[in-house]
């Protein structure tokens, strides 16, 4: 009877060990996923800052072109009609 009890305890310990191993592997996988996502967020933030800066430069360039062009200058329509 003692042998059967020992076998049952060993089987239970084996099941617990397998469950712990499964959980540890799942935690490690989730940690790697989190690291990957965090790196991706950082890369997207960096790209976003770069694009914002480029948009500001382009916006200023367009404003300069518009102010230098007579097509976009405001005109006095009353004096033109006479």
UniProtKB/TrEMBL annotation:
Name used for this protein in its record: Short coiled-coil protein
GO cellular component, one term: Golgi membrane
Keyword Membrane annotated: yes
Localization terms from the record: Cytoplasm, Cytosol; Golgi apparatus membrane; Golgi apparatus, trans-Golgi network
Family, similarity comment: Belongs to the SCOC family.
Key words of the record: Coiled coil, Cytoplasm, Golgi apparatus, Membrane
Membrane topology: Peripheral membrane protein
Protein origin, superkingdom: Eukaryota
Protein task: Positive regulator of amino acid starvation-induced autophagy.
PANTHER family linked: SHORT COILED COIL PROTEIN, SHORT COILED-COIL PROTEIN
InterPro entries in the record: SCOC (IPR019357)
Coiled-coil segments on the chain, per record: 1-54
Species for this entry: Lonchura striata (white-rumped munia)
